[in-house]
């Protein structure tokens, strides 16, 4: 098939520290004509008509009104990753453009990072290893109570893993799930109940206006002083200033965050100075396998839109 | 009650029957008995520290009937055993007994107990923690997230999946089996090598496949987990040959004893990328000398032998040790006795 017959997909860049990875390029080129932002901007007239899709990787390229207006044949924006809080889905939809994400590809690796952070925090894995004192102790994970806030696919996989550690599992979700029995999870209609009983609280919600600063001073105050807060959702789900205060005053024992607001934090941010916190650089899906699956899932979604077939993971504007 | 008004080490006599005298190394500090364990122990025993013993050997040597060995201290040698004619039992914390001379204890007719099962879940948890931390480059990631010169998080910075990968467990005792139970929930493919094959029910409960030859396990595993006891047979079980059989993308995790691995061979294998990474809760010695090459490698995580280092577990351990001592002194069957 001649290259010009393939639909054009816009990407930020190839390679480097922010561009699409080399293996993605090969995957994308099977089905699309790859156009970088640089190529697009250098030749807008010709390129703009070719672009039928945008592959958004690590929140780039930025999708704004100006870009949408300049792409008359754009049908779909496919996000690599499940969170789309960086996209104005309403605005994009108003242009008749569909938005898709990759919920399947991210689930295992993100659940794994949640478990990794919980274990690393409980057992004090990243702390200075000068200490060989026998009274240098952590807290147990096995048999402890885990409270999962947000029981979607990722939250459910966290529950499956926690069950093998004989954890008591509580969850809070917009809706109760039938599958709770299979993992022995108890529904907490009121989030307060979950916060008061949990040894580990893990945040696995989408970021939305409803979940913005879901965990603030009040919620942190409800948690046990021996509890650990783990965030694998979005930084803005936590009132970060309230978290700093809670950690400083030992209102809770510790926190482990894969996400913050912003990312990275400014270098003088108080969270960086605390010793009862682990921060990782948003690596929930940073595995060779997950990145590959995300690209494949995004491509499947894009092709479905362009071929007028049922779309596996379309996001609708509320 | 939280009554700590008793003098350290000395217990007022209770009526006619004195509490049995038990030798400990010291209280608090880097390797001492925990302050918050004292209340429980002092209800049952008259604790004598090594310092007190040495200051008053004449009287105390005949009275001491048990040694409460907390993290390998006090050190037990022939001289000590000779000077304690009424010693009945050494109760050792943790599961490992490779630090003890069993023949020596046997010669003096002294019983030995350890705490084999209480450490299991914490150690299995730590094994999982190390595997996840290594695969996902947690320590490196943390360092990047907090480093003063970090300006952005690069998109091409990746780890490897734990979910769905192959875990090879070398040593499928209590700890190894608990690891398998946990790994199953991550949909890992589980291989194991053990002196004896476990029965079919145990195997199918965790989906573990037996590898009679350790070589088969080494060749197929993405993560190799060492959970054996240290014995003459397992000393340097993993050497240059075994490391070369492993995949170049594989990670070695050690939660057993440092001496199970030929450490120099491991250093070389990591330097030459014969294997991808190492995660060690145990080394030889502990701690490693500060200029040791393992401490400088980005692809190595080392923790300070914290397999059972949780408050709850240490408390249960202490109670089990006390129970073993009480049983031995009463002439009853000793829980957790180690046959000598």
TrEMBL record, chain A:
<dbReference type="InterPro" id="IPR029752">
    <property type="entry name" value="D-isomer_DH_CS1"/>
</dbReference>
<dbReference type="GO" id="GO:0016618">
    <property type="term" value="F:hydroxypyruvate reductase [NAD(P)H] activity"/>
</dbReference>
<dbReference type="GO" id="GO:0005829">
    <property type="term" value="C:cytosol"/>
</dbReference>
<feature type="domain" description="D-isomer specific 2-hydroxyacid dehydrogenase NAD-binding">
    <location>
        <begin position="116"/>
        <end position="284"/>
    </location>
</feature>
<dbReference type="InterPro" id="IPR006140">
    <property type="entry name" value="D-isomer_DH_NAD-bd"/>
</dbReference>
<dbReference type="GO" id="GO:0030267">
    <property type="term" value="F:glyoxylate reductase (NADPH) activity"/>
</dbReference>
<dbReference type="InterPro" id="IPR006139">
    <property type="entry name" value="D-isomer_2_OHA_DH_cat_dom"/>
</dbReference>
<comment type="similarity">
    <text>Belongs to the D-isomer specific 2-hydroxyacid dehydrogenase family.</text>
</comment>
<dbReference type="GO" id="GO:0051287">
    <property type="term" value="F:NAD binding"/>
</dbReference>
<protein>
    <recommendedName>
        <fullName>Glyoxylate reductase/hydroxypyruvate reductase</fullName>
    </recommendedName>
</protein>
<dbReference type="InterPro" id="IPR050223">
    <property type="entry name" value="D-isomer_2-hydroxyacid_DH"/>
</dbReference>
<dbReference type="Pfam" id="PF02826">
    <property type="entry name" value="2-Hacid_dh_C"/>
</dbReference>
<dbReference type="Pfam" id="PF00389">
    <property type="entry name" value="2-Hacid_dh"/>
</dbReference>
<keyword id="KW-0560">Oxidoreductase</keyword>
<feature type="domain" description="D-isomer specific 2-hydroxyacid dehydrogenase catalytic">
    <location>
        <begin position="22"/>
        <end position="313"/>
    </location>
</feature>
<dbReference type="InterPro" id="IPR036291">
    <property type="entry name" value="NAD(P)-bd_dom_sf"/>
</dbReference>
From TrEMBL, chain B:
<dbReference type="GO" id="GO:0005829">
    <property type="term" value="C:cytosol"/>
</dbReference>
<dbReference type="InterPro" id="IPR050223">
    <property type="entry name" value="D-isomer_2-hydroxyacid_DH"/>
</dbReference>
<keyword id="KW-0560">Oxidoreductase</keyword>
<dbReference type="Pfam" id="PF00389">
    <property type="entry name" value="2-Hacid_dh"/>
</dbReference>
<protein>
    <recommendedName>
        <fullName>Glyoxylate reductase/hydroxypyruvate reductase</fullName>
    </recommendedName>
</protein>
<comment type="similarity">
    <text>Belongs to the D-isomer specific 2-hydroxyacid dehydrogenase family.</text>
</comment>
<dbReference type="InterPro" id="IPR006140">
    <property type="entry name" value="D-isomer_DH_NAD-bd"/>
</dbReference>
<dbReference type="Pfam" id="PF02826">
    <property type="entry name" value="2-Hacid_dh_C"/>
</dbReference>
<dbReference type="InterPro" id="IPR006139">
    <property type="entry name" value="D-isomer_2_OHA_DH_cat_dom"/>
</dbReference>
<dbReference type="GO" id="GO:0030267">
    <property type="term" value="F:glyoxylate reductase (NADPH) activity"/>
</dbReference>
<dbReference type="GO" id="GO:0051287">
    <property type="term" value="F:NAD binding"/>
</dbReference>
<feature type="domain" description="D-isomer specific 2-hydroxyacid dehydrogenase NAD-binding">
    <location>
        <begin position="128"/>
        <end position="307"/>
    </location>
</feature>
<feature type="domain" description="D-isomer specific 2-hydroxyacid dehydrogenase catalytic">
    <location>
        <begin position="37"/>
        <end position="338"/>
    </location>
</feature>
<dbReference type="GO" id="GO:0016618">
    <property type="term" value="F:hydroxypyruvate reductase [NAD(P)H] activity"/>
</dbReference>
<dbReference type="InterPro" id="IPR036291">
    <property type="entry name" value="NAD(P)-bd_dom_sf"/>
</dbReference>
């Amino acid at each position: 098939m001649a290259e010009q017959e393939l639909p054009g997909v816009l990407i930020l860049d190839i390679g480097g520290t922010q561009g699409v990875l080399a293996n993605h390029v090969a995957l994308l080129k099977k089905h699309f004509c790859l156009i970088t932002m640089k190529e697009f901007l250098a030749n807008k007239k010709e390129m703009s008509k070719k672009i039928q899709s945008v592959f958004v990787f690590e929140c780039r390229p930025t999708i704004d009104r100006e870009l949408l207006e300049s792409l008359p044949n754009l049908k779909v924006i496919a996000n690599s990753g499940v969170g789309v809080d960086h996209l104005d889905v309403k605005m994009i939809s108003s242009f008749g453009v569909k938005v898709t994400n990759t919920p399947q590809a991210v689930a295992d690796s993100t659940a794994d990072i949640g478990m990794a952070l919980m274990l690393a925090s409980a057992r004090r894995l990243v702390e200075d290893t000068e200490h060989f004192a026998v009274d240098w102790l952590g807290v147990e994970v096995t048999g402890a109570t885990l409270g999962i806030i947000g029981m979607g696919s990722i939250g459910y996989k966290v529950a499956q893993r926690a069950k093998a550690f004989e954890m008591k599992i509580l969850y809070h979700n917009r809706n109760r799930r039938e599958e709770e029995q299979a993992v022995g999870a108890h529904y907490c209609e009121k989030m307060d109940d979950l916060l008061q009983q949990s040894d580990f609280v893990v945040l696995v919600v989408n970021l939305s206006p409803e979940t913005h600063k879901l965990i603030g001073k009040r919620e942190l105050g409800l948690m046990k002083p021996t509890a650990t807060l783990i965030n694998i959702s979005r930084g803005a789900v936590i009132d970060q200033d309230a978290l700093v205060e809670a950690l400083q005053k030992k209102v809770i024992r510790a926190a482990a965050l894969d996400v913050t607001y912003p990312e990275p934090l400014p270098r003088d941010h108080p969270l960086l100075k605390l010793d009862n916190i682990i921060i990782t650089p948003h690596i929930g899906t940073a595995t060779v396998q997950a990145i590959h699956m995300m690209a494949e899932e995004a491509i499947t979604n894009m092709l479905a839109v362009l071929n007028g077939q049922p779309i596996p993971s379309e996001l609708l504007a509320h | 009650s939280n009554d700590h008004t008793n003098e350290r080490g000395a217990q007022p006599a209770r009526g006619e029957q004195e509490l049995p005298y038990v030798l400990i190394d010291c209280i608090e500090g880097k390797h001492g008995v925990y302050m918050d364990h004292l209340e429980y122990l002092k209800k049952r025993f008259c604790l004598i520290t090594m310092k007190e013993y040495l200051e008053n050997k004449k009287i105390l040597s005949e009275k001491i009937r048990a040694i409460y060995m907390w993290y390998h201290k006090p050190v037990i040698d022939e001289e000590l055993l000779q000077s304690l004619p009424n010693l009945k039992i050494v109760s050792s914390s943790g599961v490992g007994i490779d630090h003890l001379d069993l023949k020596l204890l046997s010669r003096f007719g002294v019983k030995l107990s350890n705490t084999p099962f209480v450490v299991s879940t914490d150690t299995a948890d730590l094994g999982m923690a190390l595997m996840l931390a290594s695969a996902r480059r947690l320590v490196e990631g943390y360092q990047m997230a907090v480093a003063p010169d970090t300006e952005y998080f690069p998109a091409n910075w990746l780890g490897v999946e734990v979910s769905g990968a192959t875990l090879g467990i070398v040593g499928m005792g209590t700890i190894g089996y608990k690891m398998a139970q946990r790994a199953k929930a991550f949909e890992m493919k589980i291989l194991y090598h053990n002196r004896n094959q476990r029965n079919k029910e145990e195997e199918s409960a965790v989906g573990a496949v037996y590898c009679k030859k350790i070589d088969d396990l080494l060749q197929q595993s993405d993560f190799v987990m060492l959970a054996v006891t240290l014995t003459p047979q397992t000393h340097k079980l993993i050497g240059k040959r075994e490391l070369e059989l492993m995949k170049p993308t594989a990670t070695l995790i050690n939660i057993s004893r440092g001496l199970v691995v030929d450490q120099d061979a491991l250093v070389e294998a990591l330097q030459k990328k014969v294997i991808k990474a190492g995660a060690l809760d145990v080394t030889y010695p502990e701690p490693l000398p500060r200029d040791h090459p393992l401490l400088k490698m980005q692809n190595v995580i080392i923790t300070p032998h914290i397999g059972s280092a949780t408050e709850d577990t240490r408390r249960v351990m202490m109670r089990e040790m006390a129970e073993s001592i009480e049983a031995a002194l009463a002439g009853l069957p000793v829980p957790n006795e180690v046959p000598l």
